[in-house]
Write a structure and sequence with these properties.
The protein is mainly β. The protein contains 3 helices and 29 strands. The chain has a 4-stranded antiparallel sheet, with no helix packed on it. It has a 4-stranded antiparallel sheet with strand order 12-11-10-29, with no helix packed on it. It has a 4-stranded antiparallel sheet with strand order 13-14-15-16, with no helix packed on it. The longest helix is centred in the first third of the chain and has 5 residues.
Length: 406
């Protein structure tokens, strides 16, 4: 259980010789001066509530604190990591709480109301205080090869998740996870996947670089990992508000990309090519697409042999299915969700994960309007093969604290 016991002593209070617990004794050192003795890159603690006296410090995780067990009365975290503080040794879960990274001693320090820290773990994300950096994901084996959603060829729908420090994790559908990107993925402001762009038989990832507007292809290796990236868009992609990988909409045997232009609301099709790049774009939506704040390519939802598009309407929270046509465009839309979909921060279209051969949809609920107990819920919707979705199943609530799922 995580508890919030933070009582930070503000700089303004110490300047007047005051603490949240009263007036400092005569001759006592200002709190900032003692806290500033903690070197950058270290977690530090003291046995006194005013951060004075002998200082404990560490720049690595410690399963036990030895003679310092249960003595921390004040502390500061000047590392670049989350500091997880446990009541028990060996990081055993009971009661724990966490400190944000890079705390500034000029802002004060943290007072411990009830000193019981016996182990300290420094981690990249708060999720790792109580478990893995990635959530749990399970997928049933599909009876057929879907052509998308499967990064390792085992006929199970796989998921990629990005954590808050920019690492990329691969979830193969059996409750496990594997690191496939050690860092730097926070530099991407759009990540999509749906099939084999590079035409080597493995599903790939496409990502847009925020600082340059470049579009990069990360080829799949067939093992869940990604190969060396290749530039497929030299720039200008920041002009697009939404990017979606949908599969072979143009019906030429190559997977395509859709993008909504910010300035016009137009929807453009970028066809895949034989060389694994993108061809000249084609207009398939003359305007109005800026009213949609989420796009996802679920595959063939209505069983007509053509890939479709799902879009969420921002003003109403409605969910619409746009069926693919024989001419490589989109047909008349069909309502498949009557409202309430705006609480979903992420839409996951990774094929068939219920094992019935039909593509499904998953969402992550992470809207601030939701009650805390519903934040980070994964909700799965079984595709019925008619374009409609079954009522959602609540899979679990472990999808909190992420920076995207793909």
């Amino acid at each position: 259980m995580r508890i919030s016991l933070r009582r930070r002593l503000a700089t303004a209070a110490t300047a007047f010789g005051l603490t949240t617990l009263g007036v400092l004794g005569a001759g006592a050192a200002p709190a900032q001066a003692a806290a500033a003795d903690c070197p950058v890159g270290y977690f530090c603690a003291w046995k006194t509530e005013n951060a004075t006296g002998t200082m404990f410090k560490t720049n690595k995780s410690l399963a036990t604190l030895g003679t310092w067990n249960n003595t921390f009365a004040s502390q500061i975290n000047r590392t670049s990591k989350i500091a997880c503080l446990y009541d028990l040794t060996n990081y055993e879960l009971g009661t724990y709480w966490s400190l944000d990274p890079n705390e500034d001693p000029r802002d004060g320090y943290d007072i411990v109301v009830d000193p019981h820290t016996s182990s300290v773990k420094l981690v990249g994300t708060e999720r790792e205080c109580s478990g893995e950096a990635y959530p749990t994901w399970y997928a049933d084996t599909s009876p057929t090869t879907a052509g998308f959603g499967d990064l390792n060829g085992d006929r199970k729908a796989d998921v990629l998740v990005r954590d808050r420090v920019g690492r990329l994790w691969y979830l193969p559908g059996g409750f496990t996870g594997k690191l496939v990107g050690a860092g730097g993925w926070n530099s991407m402001n759009a990540i999509v996947r749906h099939g084999d762009f590079s035409r080597d038989g493995h599903e790939d990832v496409i990502a847009r670089e925020a600082s340059t507007g470049k579009l990069w292809l990360y080829p799949g290796t067939g093992t869940g990992s990604l190969g060396a990236r290749k530039l497929v868009g030299a720039g200008g992609w920041n002009a697009m508000s939404r990017i979606a990988a949908v599969g072979d909409l143009s019906r030429d045997g190559r997977v395509d990309l859709l993008a909504v232009e910010k300035s016009t609301g137009k929807l453009w099709l970028y066809p895949g090519t034989a060389s694994g790049t993108l061809g000249a774009r084609k207009l398939i939506g003359s305007g109005g697409w800026s009213s949609m704040n989420a796009l996802t390519g679920p595959g063939d939802m209505n069983s007509d042999g053509r890939v479709d598009l799902i879009a969420r309407e921002a003003s109403t929270g409605k969910l619409w299915l746009y069926p693919g046509t024989a001419s490589g465009t989109l047909g008349a839309r069909k309502l498949i969700g009557s409202g309430g979909w705006n609480v979903m921060g992420t839409f996951l279209s990774v094929g068939d994960f219920t094992g019935d051969g039909r593509p499904d949809l998953a969402t992550i609920a992470n809207d601030p309007r939701l009650e805390p107990e519903h934040q980070g819920e994964l909700r799965t919707y079984r595709g019925l093969g008619t374009g409609a979705l079954a009522a959602h199943d609540l899979t679990d609530g472990s999808w909190w604290g992420l920076n995207g799922a793909f």
